[in-house]
Write a structure and sequence with these properties.
By secondary structure, the chain is an alpha+beta fold. The protein has helices at residues 15-49, 230-235, and strands at residues 7-8, 11-12, 53-65, 76-93, 97-115, 122-141, 146-159, 169-183, 187-199, 210-225. The chain starts with 6 loop residues before the first strand and ends in a 5-residue tail after the last helix.
Length: 240
């Protein structure tokens, strides 16, 4: 025999195998302990990340077009780039949901072109739009870091140019969208996509409106902590 060690039945167990088994068990205990410590740290971080601010403010950029996948208008093209200020106020929260009011002063730089008649030339226009959307956000807290949400908003806007589809002056900007947020200690990244409709509710003609799809990015900064975590806020709430 090459090794002289304890016997199990008629078999000799090498001493180095016993030592290796003990080493592996010790390493498993160490890894388990490290995992428990790491989980505790991450859990504490998540609880901190779940601290909800009553008020967050920031800036956003989006771009959209009537020729996005959902819309494919043959007679006109409506494309824009928008720059927005975002103000979100937490109204109330339940066990898994936040309900917020959203205020978004916006500027849209729009390029519009339309085919005049069935075979006629295109007409072109550069339009400036100034909008003030006010809306409602329902946000589902998946975890301390990731939230998903839906938003509906509407508000008055001013267009500075007449086209064959829409009269200049007063109109309404209407938005429906979905998105998700990544939440850090001091700021939030917000990714969104949605649909936008502009018309004047029949107050002036023409009023055929503009329709578009859009995608955007928002950076929000936390201002006033609510002084309670979502975990604390939900401990006394039974609503889902």
């Amino acid at each position: 025999m090459l090794f002289d060690g304890p016997n199990v039945g008629n078999q000799t167990i090498p001493e180095f195998i016993i030592s290796r088994g003990r080493y592996q068990r010790n390493m498993k205990v160490k890894y388990l302990f490290k995992a428990i410590v790491l989980f505790a740290v991450l859990s504490n971080s998540n609880l901190y990340a779940q601290t909800e601010d009553k008020l967050v403010v920031g800036f956003g950029y989006s771009q959209g077009s009537s020729t996005d996948a959902i819309f494919d208008w043959d007679t006109y093209d409506y494309s824009f780039k928008s720059f927005r200020v975002h103000i979100n106020y937490l109204l109330f929260q339940s066990r898994k949901w936040n309900y917020e009011m959203s205020i978004e002063p916006s500027y849209y730089r729009t390029t519009f072109s339309e085919l005049e008649g069935d075979t006629g030339p295109y007409s072109y226009a550069d339009i400036n739009e100034f909008a003030l959307n006010v809306g409602f956000v329902a946000k589902w807290r998946i975890g301390g870091f990731v939230h998903v949400y839906g938003i509906l908003s509407s508000g008055p806007e001013y267009l500075d140019y007449n086209t064959g589809r829409q009269k200049a002056g007063f109109a309404m900007s209407n938005i429906a969208g979905v998105g998700f947020t990544l939440n850090w200690e001091k700021f939030i990244l917000d990714f969104r996509s949605g649909l936008r409709h502009v018309s004047n509710a029949g107050s002036k003609k023409p009023n055929r409106g503009y329709n578009s799809g859009f995608t955007g990015l928002v950076v929000l900064f936390k201002t006033r902590p609510n002084n309670k975590t979502a975990e604390t806020a939900t401990s006394g709430s039974t609503a889902d």
